[in-house]
Design a protein that fits this description.
With 389 residues, the protein is an alpha/beta fold. The protein has helices at residues 19-26, 33-43, 49-52, 62-70, 93-105, 115-121, 127-142, 156-172, 176-183, 191-211, 226-236, 278-286, 296-302, 310-319, 323-335, 340-369, and strands at residues 6-9, 12-15, 29-30, 56-60, 76-81, 109-113, 151-155, 217-222, 245-249. It has 16 helices and nine strands. The longest helix has 30 residues, at 340-369. It is globular and about 70 Å long. It starts with 5 loop residues before the first strand and ends in a 20-residue tail after the last helix. The structure holds tryptophan. Tryptophan binds next to strand 5 and strand 8.
Length: 389
């Protein structure tokens, strides 16, 4: 593959991703300064790092979501997780943003846990395993700080009773040729995955379906998930639902200098897991890839390169607590005033502190996670709209 070539689908990220080019290929909009400023003003608070530092960089119809909100038709949030193993910090990206949006706009949050999808996708995982990871991951996601009174969970194999009628409507509108083209599935793909995209659409329509009132949906997600929602958006109006809006993030780089924080294969040192011990955090960050120079003398003289550094990426996406701190770290890195060892020691302490708090929140969330799982749709769901065969 030539260096400028890359592939991004929900099931495969290959090559060196050019994010600006990807936005063009997918036909999405740039998340530009005026739109961010409008969001900031409506939220009445500084933007969180994920927005102010460019990790979210693309969208579809965010302006429309804000228009509707101002007209008194508030949106709900939707994001999800395919449970194939323990979570690492980069998995929190959409959920950190959703938490901020929920707190600022007081809107409902829907979380989908796709244990079926991961079972179909990963030959070596059993259904017990994906279900168990689903509950584990859910507790971690809820610990991010969602309002339990305004948060709902579709746990696919457990929520299918609530989802199925709507999934049936959705599936009828999606030709096999679309799925084949959008996801690039080879003929050996199991038919579970072929059907699955219908289930990922369901939460986007569910509140409208239940209430009979078109309810705007905003989906923060990695840009790799956009293909699913292109399908969703294509069929939405034909079924009488508004097209969901999207906010797309870039994928975070891994600790070993990999372009994506993925741990597929035997790459567990490429990411910080939410259940890593303080010792593990120390060990992984000490050996993390940086943009530093070969010697201290050189680094003092020439400075280092934050843009290629995995430690800087961690400060940028989550761990620098204020804009001032982030600018300081970035500036001192570039000038050579900050050495990698000191920067790492600082981050290690910050990450350990975060994980300690996270573990406490997770314990609590364990107690109420069950109660948020949607198991049944209201008996009159869907009756407010005419049947559309
Ligand atoms: N397919 C996603 C994954 O593999 C899980 C998912 C389901 C999702 N619904 C979503 C992700 C909505 C983002 C937004 O992890």
């Amino acid at each position: 593959m030539a260096p400028e070539e890359f592939t991004v689908t929900p099931y495969e990220v290959k090559g060196r991703v050019d994010y600006a080019r990807l936005r063009e290929l997918f036909g999405t909009q740039e998340l530009d300064a005026p739109l961010l400023e409008r969001l900031r003003a409506m939220a009445g608070a500084d933007l969180p790092p994920l927005l102010s530092r460019g990790i979210y960089y693309s969208h579809r119809d965010l302006g429309w979501i804000l228009d509707q909100y101002q007209k008194g038709n508030p949106f709900f949030l939707y994001s999800g997780r395919g449970p194939s193993g323990p979570l690492h910090t980069s998995h929190l990206v959409p959920f950190d943003l959703c938490r901020w949006l929920q707190q600022r706009f007081h809107v409902p949050m829907y979380i989908q846990i796709t244990d079926d999808e991961k079972f179909w996708f990963r030959p070596q995982l059993s259904r017990d395993e994906t279900r168990r990871w689903g509950m584990e991951n859910l507790a971690d996601l809820l610990a991010v700080g969602f309002d339990p009174k305004n948060t709902h969970v579709f746990f696919d194999t457990r929520s299918i009773g609530a989802m199925y009628s709507l999934a049936v409507d959705v599936a009828k509108k999606i030709p096999y040729s679309t799925v084949k083209a959008v996801f690039g599935f080879p003929p050996s793909t199991n038919i579970g995955l072929v059907f699955y995209t219908a289930l990922q659409t369901v939460p986007a329509f569910y509140p409208s379906w239940v209430s009979g009132r078109p309810t705007p949906c905003l989906i923060p997600c990695g840009i790799d998930q956009d293909p699913h929602f292109r399908v969703t958006r294509d069929i939405a109006e034909g079924l009488g639902y508004p097209k969901p809006a999207l906010l797309h993030s870039q994928m975070l780089p891994g600790l070993l200098g990999e372009r994506v924080m993925s741990t597929t294969g035997d790459q567990s040192d490429n990411a910080l897991f939410l259940n890593d011990s303080p010792k593990e955090v120390d060990r992984k960050l000490r050996k993390a890839f940086t943009g530093g120079r070969a010697t201290v003398e050189e680094q003092r003289r020439l400075g280092a390169t934050p843009e290629i550094c995995s430690v800087w990426a961690a400060w940028r996406s989550k761990f620098a607590e204020s804009e001032a701190e982030f600018q300081q770290i970035t500036g001192d890195c570039r000038s050579g005033a900050l050495l990698c060892g000191d920067c790492k020691a600082h981050l290690i302490g910050r990450v350990q502190g975060f994980l300690k708090e996270h573990h406490e929140a997770r314990e609590k969330a364990m107690g109420w996670a069950e109660s948020l799982i949607v198991e049944r749709a209201p008996a009159d769901a869907g009756t407010a709209r005419p049947e559309r065969p």
